[in-house]
Amino acid sequence: VSTQSTGSSGINAEYGEFLNYYTNYYYKSNLSTMALYSHSSKLVKPGNEAPTDVETAVSQALLDLEANSDLSSALRGLYFVGAEEVVIRDDKVAVVIHIPFPQQKIYHKIQGRLVRELEKKLSGKHVIFLSKRRILSKPTRHSRNLSKQKRPRSRTLTAVHASILDDLVYPAEIAGQRKRVKLDGSQQIKVHLEKACQINTETKLDTFMSVYKKLTGKDVVFEYVD
Q1: Which residues contact 37 (CB under 8 A, 6 or more apart)?
Q2: Are 69 and 120 in contact (CB under 8 A)?
Q3: Is there a contact between 23 and 15 (Cβ–Cβ < 8 Å)?
Q4: C-alpha span between 76 and 63 (Å, rounded)
Q5: Predicted TM-score of the model (pTM)
Q6: How far apart are CA 40 and CA 63, in angstroms?
Q7: Residue (of 52, 106, 53, 39) closest to 79 by Cα position
Q8: Crossing angle, helix 205-216 and helix 157-169, to 10 degrees?
Q9: What is the pLDDT at residue 43?
Q10: Which H/E stretch holds residue 120?
C-alpha cells in the first residue's frame, strides 16, 4: 500500500514501507487458514465463507487458463479474494474480480490478455479487476482506538475511490477529471481519458460508469481528450 507525503516525508515513507510489509505478511501468513474451495482453486476466502456461483465460475476459468494457455506460468501463484456480478443493463452483465493488493502489479503485467481470455470463457461478460482496499474512518476524539500515527492518505475514502477509478480503466490512463455540481445539489465526476486508449475502452464506458456507481454511489462520465 503506497502513501503520499504531505510534509513529514521521512515518517510517511517509513510507515508506507511498514504497511507494504504488513500487507504482504498478512496475506502470506493467512493463506494456510483461508479456505481454498475444491481440490485446487484460485479463490481464497477467509473463514468458512462458501463461494458464490460467480466466484466458482471465475476460479474454474482461471484454472483452465493456467492449465491450457500461454498464461500458465504467469497465473501460477495468483489468486483472487472475491467476485461479483454488476448489471449494466438488461442485456449486459459485468464481472468484477477482487484481487489482493500485493498481487496488483503482477496482474497488471498480463491483464490485457487475461481479460480477453476470461471474457471468452464467461460468455462475453465484461471483466473488471479491482484491488481489495480498506477504508479507514477519520479518527475523532471519541474514537476507541486512537493511534499516534496519522491515518495514511491511501486509506482515506477519497483516495480509495480514486484508486478504484484507476483500476477500472486500466491500462488506460486518466488525463484529468473535474467535479460538476448540479442545481439540485447532486454531483457528477467527469473523467478525461487519453484519446489513444479509445479503441480499447470505448465499448466499456457504460460498464465503468455502472460499476463505479455500484461501488461508490457516485456518478461518473467519461470523455476522450487529445
Answers
A1: 43, 45, 50, 51, 56, 59
A2: no
A3: no
A4: 9
A5: 0.76
A6: 8
A7: 106
A8: 160
A9: 93
A10: helix 104-121
State the CB neighbour count (10 A cutoff) for residue 35.
14
| pLDDT tens column, 105-160 | 999 999 999 999 999 999 999 999 999 987 666 766 655 555 556 666 666 878 88
The x, y and z cell numbers of residue 58, run together, are: 471465475
Phi, psi (degrees; rounded to nearest 5) at 193: -105, 150
The set of cell numbers assigned to 190 is 467527469
Residue 119 near residue 126 (C-beta atoms within 8 A): yes
DSSP state of 80: B
- Asked if 62 contacts 40 with a C-beta cutoff of 8 angstroms, the reply is no
Q: Tens digits of per-residue pLDDT, 71-118?
A: 999 999 999 999 999 999 888 999 999 999 999 999 999 999 999 999
